[in-house]
């Protein structure tokens, strides 16, 4: 799947992903068209491959971001029951996925990117400010980047004007492979809500699978194993 959607421009990359069935949802495709990956990838921005962004981190391949967005989209868009979607992006790295998510959450929505490396938190913010739209997201408070240990999730007060009591997350994306599904993440998931998380398999050490973990409106949890991946691990913060 990797590589074959590579294009010479952002729109060509997006159209190739759509043609290969990686972008099925029109709302997700639109988000990808609106965000130039060149603001986030250090080089060869329209190649469908991961790239190092420093500090042992990588910007994931576009097709991986497409898959994450497709799996989370229904939990990120505003609805009558969810007028102000709240989305958490753990291991925000380059900030690219954080920006794509912000395209979906509507005027009242909130996207928080959590990084345990301060320099990467700053990189995400800097990258987002390269575009007018991205600057507006940060300036309006719709997007926030924070430093923290994503294994504990993140508690963020409702934005000004929003009802209190809605501190949980409608959608949580984890961009690094976890040793386990951390209890804090499940606890912070709203009912309904979805957690998209790569988790190390029990045996083997190197193998990982992405899971959708859904909490329904009654709080019932359902776990669905999606596909195998190779992500960098969710770890203790290194000293830089
Ligand atoms: N989604 C991002 C980055 C993916 S790389 C992108 O595509 O650009 C995974 C990121 O997870 C790295 O930036 C790494 O610093 C971060 N990370 C690893 N362990 C973490 C932890 N415990 N808490 C927060 N971030 C963590």
UniProtKB/TrEMBL annotation:
The keyword Transferase applies. Its main location: cytoplasm. Its EC number is 2.1.1.77. One of its GO terms (molecular function) is protein-L-isoaspartate (D-aspartate) O-methyltransferase activity. It is found in: Cytoplasm. One of its GO terms (cellular component) is cytoplasm. One of its GO terms (biological process) is methylation. Keywords: Cytoplasm, Methyltransferase, S-adenosyl-L-methionine, Transferase. Belongs to the methyltransferase superfamily. L-isoaspartyl/D-aspartyl protein methyltransferase family. This is protein-L-isoaspartate(D-aspartate) O-methyltransferase. It comes from Pseudallescheria apiosperma (Scedosporium apiospermum). The lineage of its organism: Eukaryota, Fungi, Dikarya, Ascomycota, Pezizomycotina.
């Amino acid at each position: 799947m990797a590589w074959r959607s590579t294009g010479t421009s952002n729109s060509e990359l997006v159209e190739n992903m759509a043609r290969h069935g990686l972008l099925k949802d029109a709302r997700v495709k639109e988000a990808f068209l609106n965000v130039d990956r060149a603001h986030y990838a250090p080089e060869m921005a329209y190649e469908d491959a991961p790239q190092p962004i420093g500090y042992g981190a990588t910007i994931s391949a576009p097709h991986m971001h497409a898959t994450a967005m497709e799996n989370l989209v229904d939990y990120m868009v505003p609805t009558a029951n969810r007028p102000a979607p709240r989305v958490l992006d753990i291991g925000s790295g380059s900030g690219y996925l954080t920006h794509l998510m912000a395209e979906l959450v509507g005027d009242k929505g909130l996207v928080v990117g959590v990084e345990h490396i301060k320099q990467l938190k700053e990189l995400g913010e800097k990258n987002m400010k390269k575009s007018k739209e991205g600057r507006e997201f940060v300036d309006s408070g719709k997007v926030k980047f924070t430093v923290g240990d994503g294994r504990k999730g993140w508690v963020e007060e409702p934005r000004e004007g929003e009802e209190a009591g809605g501190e949980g997350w409608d959608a949580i994306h984890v961009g690094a492979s976890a040793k386990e599904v951390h209890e804090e993440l499940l606890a912070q998931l709203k009912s309904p809500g979805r957690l998209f998380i790569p988790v190390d398999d029990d045996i083997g050490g190197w193998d990982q699978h992405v899971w959708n973990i859904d909490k329904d409106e009654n709080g019932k949890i359902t776990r669905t194993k999606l596909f195998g991946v190779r992500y960098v691990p969710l770890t203790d913060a290194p000293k830089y």
